[in-house]
Specification:
With 250 residues, this protein is mainly beta. 10% of the residues lie in helices and 44% in strands.
Length: 250
């Protein structure tokens, strides 16, 4: 069963967040490297726009006992359960390989926003990939890129993982579980206008992560003014409070 979508009235640190809904759209004529555009509005912060693309990391043997990970463009798909990715080794998406999964290639989404934001929370709908147990651990990266307009291609196809990592200022893991869930995904409140969210690159538990991303709640950088006014003590209190009051899941 799918987790409940984020509420449009979810408030973080006194600001009503913008919630992107990723559960509607068409897959007709989708090709590798396609992009989808979304908008989300909050009465407190106005409208934010984002360009979303789907990618995968392929491990390629480049010499005797040496390998390099290369970025491959993939099909960004949309379903009632959220965004998914079909990459070149996914057998056309059969057996739930149309999710963001790390069976074989590691699938990931790239988000290019029209303004710097902080991720707050997201809904992960989990699926069993190739009959394996469900899991929803995720790798998240954040950074700032002003060289490429937010609504233009980053031209990542064929680039190395090292090149990909160079686009971001940092990376962290968000651990999920087997059940579909809505969870807080940015406990240290990082900021950026370019983000990556994908099936876990680290995958410490060895399980196959496979999920569709149903929604994403963000808050723009000007909210830092509120934190500065309120003090970091209030910020820490707000973070702990928000983690306790997670949005309802079904």
């Amino acid at each position: 069963m799918s987790a409940a979508p984020a509420s449009a009235a979810y408030v973080f640190n006194g600001t009503e967040v913008a919630v992107f809904d990723f559960t509607t759209g068409s897959n007709v004529g989708v090709q590798d490297g396609n992009a989808r555009f979304y908008s989300a509005t909050s009465p407190d912060i106005g409208t934010l726009d984002v360009r979303v693309t789907g990618w995968s990391l392929e491990r390629v043997k480049t010499g005797y006992n040496s390998y390099t990970n290369y970025v491959r463009d993939s099909k960004l798909m949309v379903y009632s359960g959220g965004l998914g990715i079909t990459s070149g080794d996914d057998d056309g998406g059969a057996n739930n390989q149309h999710t963001a999964d790390n069976e074989g290639r590691k699938d990931f989404f790239v988000f290019q926003f029209n303004a710097p934001v902080a991720f707050i929370s997201a809904t992960f709908n989990t699926y069993s990939v190739l009959g394996y147990s469900k899991d929803s651990d995720a790798t998240i990266k954040y950074g700032f890129n002003y060289d490429t307009p937010w609504n233009s291609s980053l031209n990542l196809d064929g680039k190395t993982e090292s090149y990909l990592n160079g686009l971001f200022d940092g990376s962290f893991e968000s651990l999920g579980g087997s059940a579909s869930n809505h969870r807080f995904i940015n406990p240290d409140l990082h900021w950026g206008n370019v983000w990556l969210l994908g099936s876990s690159f680290v995958n410490k538990d060895g399980k196959i992560d496979g999920f569709k991303l149903a929604n994403l709640a963000v808050v723009p950088e000007p909210a830092t003014w509120l934190m500065m006014i309120g003090g970091f003590g209030l910020l820490g209190s707000a973070l702990r409070r928000r983690r306790r009051t997670a949005l309802a899941t079904a």
